[in-house]
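Progress against Task 2.4 (sequence-to-structure conversion) is shown through the following example record, which the project officer requested during the mid-term review.
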Amino acid sequence: MRRSVGLLADFRFEQSDPDRFYGHLAADTVGLLSDIWADAGDTASTGATSLAGTRILDVGGGPGYFGRAFAAAGVDNYVTCEPDVGEMAAAGIRLASSVRGSGMDLPFADGAFDLTYSSNVAEHVCEPWRMADEMLRVTRPGGLVVFSYTCWLGPFGGHETGLWQHYVGGEYAARRYERTQGHPPKNRWGESLFNVSCADGLRYAAALPARRDIPDAAPVAAFPRYHPWWAWWMTRVPGLREVGVSNLVLVLRRR
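Structure tokens generated for the chain above:
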């Protein structure tokens, strides 16, 4: 519970103090992925239960906070792919493993990584499930994809435009933010912020085993990222999950 409250409380600092917000989120992400890999990863192929022996791709890694956190955890085979040069340089963190490219057309060979993940990226691209398909493509058989995103109808779906304004409408929230703050929001509705539901992700994961247009894949788990384990049941309740889950984590396996 302490972890959940701390992460959610930091959300208000995303714009005003990004070092605090993204630094905390990055460290938590490393811990989350470490646990997922230890529990469900193909550790026999990498020879280790820790992330240190894995090839990791971070889709939409942004200004480098995540890369720094992985380096601190001893991961030396980490690559980040980010389409926006300005975003890559925003924090002044230099990463030799940064690649410029779109998550919807990843510039990597099939099966290049053991673990591919994205953190709070899907809601910022117009075709999030195309991005998920690409992440599966570049993950080797036996590897994992961890796809984490903010659900639109959750309290943080509108990002910096407010906790309730996006319930009225994304365009309304953006215009109200610009009127009250004197400048446009970083995340603009319809351009860099989109309506992605919890149900969308669960449907995508459930449909994977029957698809023939992408490499064999199957869902492993789905849970709310910021909640303690005893609240994970929310993902099973239609309606409630859209508001209560806030951020959905999908864990997928290449077979």
